[in-house]
Design a protein that fits this description.
The chain has about 325 residues and is mainly alpha-helical. It is built from 13 helices and five strands. The strands form two sheets. It has a three-stranded mixed β-sheet with strand order 3-4-5. The protein has a two-stranded antiparallel ribbon with strand order 1-2. A hairpin with a 7-residue loop joins β3 and β4. α1 packs across α2, α3 crosses α4 and α7 runs parallel beside α12. It is globular, with a radius of gyration of 27 Å. About 15% of the residues are buried.
Length: about 325
């Protein structure tokens, strides 16, 4: 689809500048010319290549009236192979990769040079600190020690709620997500959007589809969780047991999560219930304390994407006991 958008633009510009009457024929040196009588700007003329468009991406042997996509994209598709490490590939992927390479070069230059502007120097210093593997290894987990202490403080529902709020304040979206979004009914307003979450794997189907591939993924994920817990300071035996608990909790959340397909319908994910509705949805949680901790004590306008998820989350708050 991204290819179609880019090449539709190419075709539009090519067709606007073409004087040929032959079907599907656009010369490589097609001119893009502003001939508007009303235009007060100087008339400009240039080739497609000069403005960053590639005429070779077109398949000029195809008839755009019969197969517009082939006409617009055929040349590029015929000359481009999908890389072996990617499931899909398009021109926007190429643009993204080029931008990533450009940004990487800028950061490396900012890190290496001195006597730069204060802003560039700060960028270079920040990037250099991130890339300093030796310093990172020496620091160990000290940088996240305060966050780990928050997780370890959970003993009951009250301390669980406090931990959720503190972690959310630090942009760690445990159990559910909270973000700002335009109101679907009134786009002039920004409201809060509470969304289902709590899954370490990318989608609920990884937990629920019981084929060999997903079984292998779940096994690998559970082993990964255990390894991360060991790196966080837990003993291997305890980490293995805790990883099982993590998988069980996430599986229960996956069971009440809305599917990816259902989430594509905006009506399925917009339920503006506001603060009163949130209090009613999970009455056992101190939402006043939560919103105060994250810095929005007066917030009222709230939409919830999937109420059954939050109802289950409220239930699990009281039935799942913290590790001793």
């Amino acid at each position: 689809m991204s290819n179609r958008i880019l090449f539709s633009t190419t075709l539009f510009l090519a067709a606007c500048g073409s004087n040929t009457s032959d079907k599907g024929s656009v010369p490589t040196d097609t001119k893009v010319t502003d001939t508007s009588v009303q235009s007060q700007r100087p008339v400009e003329s240039t080739t497609l290549a000069a403005v960053g468009l590639d005429p070779a991406a077109l398949d000029k042997s195809a008839d755009p009236c019969d197969n517009f996509y082939e006409y617009a994209c055929g040349g590029w598709m015929a000359s481009t192979e999908i890389p072996s490490d990617k499931a899909r590939y398009g021109r926007f992927t190429q643009i993204y990769e080029r931008n990533e390479a450009t940004l990487h070069a800028i950061l490396e230059e900012a890190r290496a040079k001195t006597l730069q502007s204060p802003v560039v120097e700060q960028i270079g210093t920040y990037y250099g600190a991130c890339m300093n593997e030796e310093a990172a290894e020496k620091a160990g987990i000290s940088a996240i020690a305060p966050l780990l202490s928050i997780a370890k403080s959970v003993k009951n529902t009250k301390t669980l709620d406090a931990a959720i709020a503190k972690l959310h304040k630090n942009a760690i979206g445990v159990l559910f997500g909270l973000a700002s979004t335009p109101d679907y009914i009134d786009a002039t307003k920004m409201i809060a959007d509470m969304s289902q979450g709590g899954l370490g794997l990318p989608d609920r189907d990884y937990y629920l589809v019981d084929d060999d591939s997903n079984k292998e993924i779940r096994k690998g994920y559970q082993e990964h969780v255990a390894a991360m817990l060991v790196l966080g300071g837990m003993k291997p035996a305890a980490a293995t047991k805790a990883a099982v608990d993590v998988m069980n909790i996430e599986t229960e959340l996956a069971k009440v999560s809305m599917s990816r397909t259902d989430r594509r319908d905006p009506e399925n994910v917009y339920h503006k219930i506001d603060r009163a509705g949130v209090d009613k949805m999970v009455p056992s949680m101190d939402w006043t304390a939560y919103f105060t901790t994250i810095g929005f004590p007066a917030i009222q306008d709230i939409t919830v994407d999937h109420e059954p998820f939050f109802a289950k989350l409220g239930e699990m708050r009281t039935t799942v006991k913290p590790a001793a």
